[in-house]
Design goal:
Layout lengths: L2 H11 L18 H12 L5 H8 L3 H13 L3 E4 L2 E4 L8 H7 L4 H10 L3 E2 H8 L3 H13 L3 E6 L2 E6 L2 H8 L1 H17 L5 E5 L3 E8 L2 E8 L2 H4 L6
Antiparallel strand pairs: 1-2, 3-5, 4-5, 6-7, 7-8
């Protein structure tokens, strides 16, 4: 983004609320905590309730309450016990996202991308899990096609495949439709949404009713963000 555009955007959004409730009642995303849950599940579809609650400092009951409202209002959908934003991912990939949400899976995948050909023993030390646990996770992820396990003498080495890259590239049309549907849904709820910015990773929306308006940055690159951790 150019410097001039950046200043214009900063001016446009200055003073706007991010974590505030709108005065209007009814629309799901008028609620600040509900927006947090929605945003989190855009970042990491099929995330476990306990992880969402921990990362957002909410009780599991609170997360379930807001997620259920978002399902009822058509922002999220539920496939078995998996919850994810409507239209953001390929439905056939819900099981993959659910697997990536499991303990240690994201760390193993990230380490394999950081060090292709890493041995199971080295991987175990890198992610602070037992070799047995790492081996089990690597086998599971190889069954989804995102990792390969290769024999190298007495070592088994882990390599990332290009499957996630290909899925990410193929998701472009779906992401475009997701953004349009989200804006349309907010309009239907009377929240007068404005698209302030769109790039490969996020949408920045402003919406509200009456004088109060809020900002919502929506992650739209789940095939990259679901397994990347900031800490």
């Amino acid at each position: 983004m150019g410097r001039g555009i950046g200043r214009a955007l900063e001016k446009a959004v200055s003073g706007e609320a991010v974590d505030a409730d709108l005065e209007t009642q009814g629309p799901s995303l008028a609620n600040a905590r509900r927006r947090q849950v929605f945003r989190y599940l855009c970042l990491r579809p099929c995330a476990r309730v306990g992880d969402v609650g921990r990362d957002l400092s909410m009780s599991q009951a609170t997360v379930r309450w807001h997620a259920w409202d978002l399902v009822e209002k058509g922002f999220l959908q539920m496939e078995r016990a998996r919850v994810f934003p409507v239209g953001l991912i390929d439905l056939a990939d819900a099981a993959l996202f659910s697997a990536l949400a499991g303990t240690g899976r994201a760390a193993v995948l990230a380490a394999s991308f950081a060090s292709p050909g890493i041995s199971l023993q080295e991987l175990s030390e890198r992610v602070h899990l037992t070799r047995q646990s790492v081996s089990k996770i690597a086998i599971e992820l190889s069954e989804f096609g995102v990792l390969s396990l290769d024999e190298d003498g007495r070592f088994r080495r882990v390599n990332p495949t290009d499957l996630l890259v290909r899925k990410r590239e193929a998701n472009g049309a779906r992401v475009a439709a997701f953004g349009e549907a989200l804006i349309r849904r907010l309009s239907e709820e009377g929240l007068s949404p404005e698209l302030l910015r769109k790039d490969e990773r996020t949408l920045l929306l402003r919406f509200g009713s009456g004088p109060r308006r809020v900002l919502l940055e929506v992650p739209i690159d789940p095939y990259a963000t679901a397994w990347m951790r900031s800490g």
